UniProtKB/TrEMBL annotation:
Keywords: Repeat, TPR repeat. TPR repeats lie at residues 62-95, 96-129. SMART domains: TPR (SM00028). It holds the Pfam family TPR_16. InterPro entries: TPR-like_helical_dom_sf, TPR_rpt, Ycf3/AcsC/BcsC/TPR_MFPF. The keyword Repeat applies. This is Cellulose synthase subunit BcsC.
Length: 179
């Protein structure tokens, strides 16, 4: 029987990636539960240490590199996050999630135009990438381009599974709010 925390992280894509690693036998099941638990508890430093150990044993596991990049973003280790996403890119050049992660790293370092380009590239590879749609919308709202931002948020809303909100931060900023 599988032991996992009663509550999964709100970011179900992390859980799904970890589930896939176990199913593909890329990581042992006991590591799966530890990773999910660390993520759910917001213990990103612990998660970082666990991921580094796992990557030593499973260097070809794309999802581990992707999760390492996302963990480093949470820890504000942006240059190291870029390296992790770069390794993920080498392992799976067609995956849009690594481009979204690279875009996040660029954005948090103040390189907004580069981030927007990476989000757009992610959307070229996967037009249904909800994270890239939301991030494009947020970035365009920051630029004051509210009509374009609303377009991205609307696309994300239409594509999102029922009951899953797609938050944007333009509420109250946009002249079109409430329309």
């Amino acid at each position: 029987m599988r032991r996992v925390p009663k509550k999964y992280p709100k970011n179900t894509s992390v859980r799904k990636r970890l589930d896939a690693l176990v199913q593909q036998q890329e990581i042992p099941q006991q590591n799966h539960a530890k990773l999910i638990h660390a993520f759910a508890q917001g213990r990103y430093a612990d998660l970082h240490a666990q991921l580094l150990q796992l990557i030593e044993s499973f260097p070809q596991a794309y999802s581990l590199w992707l999760l390492l990049g996302n963990t480093l973003l949470k820890l504000k280790g942006y240059p190291k996050a870029e390296l992790a996403f770069g390794q993920a890119r080498k392992l799976d050049p067609s995956a849009s999630a690594r481009l979204t992660g690279l875009g996040d790293a660029q954005r948090w370092q103040g390189h907004d135009e580069a981030a927007l380009g990476l989000y757009d590239e992610a959307l070229e590879q996967n037009p249904r990438d909800l994270t890239a749609l939301k991030n494009c919308g947020n970035l365009l709202a920051d630029f004051g381009r509210f009509a374009a931002a609303i377009g991205y948020f609307e696309r994300a809303r239409v594509l999102a599974p029922a009951g899953r909100p797609v938050p944007g931060h333009i509420c109250g900023q946009c002249p079109h709010d409430g329309q």
